[in-house]
């Protein structure tokens, strides 16, 4: 089944977010249908803050390793594209495409001193150019477009999100990603307003998958929550080693 088709099933695509070969292999072994990189997890793994602080070449190295060690469709979180023009973004997508990726995420915010939302029409124009250039190059890459209206809690975020969905749909998006969206009424409204599959992200108060299916959500991703959880467990285990001057806690509930 193609990556695009996975967004059209009655049950949502549960996208496992990964950051290295090991996490990708675990996802494949457990039966996930697709994987996607987490920019925040990869950045943290390499010692950076999130927000395009890593070099694009470093991202490419990680993506190439993951793609070369799994049969699962792979979507790459490109953040804002590692470029500010459509030509720069397309060149970066083309490089990632050589590794056999199935899709990308592009977001409508940029991080300088802080994360700010890009003007919707300006971003849509860039997206339109990116989509046209990819079509000209005969590259079939799923464009999952992330809007950060809920991440940044902008004024009138529900209506602003609706407007941006309309703009990005016309510009050639294949899917819409709305992280930090978890309220059932908002999810239902935006799903009903959208012609494209809606992707939401793991949140503490997110409804369960069956409920999200009823609401019409087509893709559910994890962000960096697995990586953060794993890091917290590592910190806890190491603190026990230091506190108890023993390795006993490492082997409790362990496969070692």
TrEMBL record:
| UniProt organism field | Snodgrassella alvi
The UniProt entry, under PANTHER family, shows: CARBOXYPHOSPHONOENOLPYRUVATE PHOSPHONOMUTASE-LIKE PROTEIN (AFU_ORTHOLOGUE AFUA_5G07230), PHOSPHOENOLPYRUVATE CARBOXYLASE
Write down what this protein is called: Carboxyvinyl-carboxyphosphonate phosphorylmutase
A molecular function (GO) held by this record is: catalytic activity
Coiled-coil intervals, chain numbering: none
InterPro entries recorded: ICL/PEPM (IPR039556), Pyrv/PenolPyrv_kinase-like_dom (IPR015813), Pyrv_kinase-like_dom_sf (IPR040442)
Residue intervals passing through the bilayer: none
| Cited Pfam families | PEP_mutase (PF13714)
């Amino acid at each position: 089944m193609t990556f695009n088709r996975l967004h059209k099933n009655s049950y949502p695509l549960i996208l496992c977010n990964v950051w290295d070969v090991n996490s990708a292999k675990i996802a494949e072994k457990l039966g996930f249908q697709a994987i996607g990189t987490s920019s925040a997890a990869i950045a943290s793994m390499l010692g950076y803050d999130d927000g395009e602080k890593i070099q694009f070449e470093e991202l490419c190295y990680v993506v190439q390793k993951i793609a070369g060690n799994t049969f699962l469709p792979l979507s790459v979180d490109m953040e804002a594209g590692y470029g500010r023009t459509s030509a720069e973004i397309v060149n970066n997508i083309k490089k990632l495409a050589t590794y056999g990726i199935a899709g990308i995420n592009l977001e409508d915010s940029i991080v300088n001193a802080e994360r700010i939302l890009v003007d919707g029409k300006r971003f849509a124009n860039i997206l339109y150019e990116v989509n046209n250039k990819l079509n000209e190059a005969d590259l079939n890459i799923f464009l999952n477009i992330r809007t950060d209206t809920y991440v940044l809690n902008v004024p009138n975020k529900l209506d602003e999100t609706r407007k941006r969905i309309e703009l990005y749909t016309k510009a050639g998006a294949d899917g819409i990603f709305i992280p930090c969206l978890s309220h059932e009424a908002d999810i239902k409204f935006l799903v009903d307003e959208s012609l494209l599959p809606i992707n939401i992200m793991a949140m503490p108060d997110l409804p369960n998958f069956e409920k999200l299916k009823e609401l019409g959500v087509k893709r559910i991703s994890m962000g960096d929550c697995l990586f953060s959880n794993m890091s917290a467990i590592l910190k806890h285990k190491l603190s026990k080693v230091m506190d108890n001057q023993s390795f006993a806690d490492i082997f409790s509930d362990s496969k070692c």
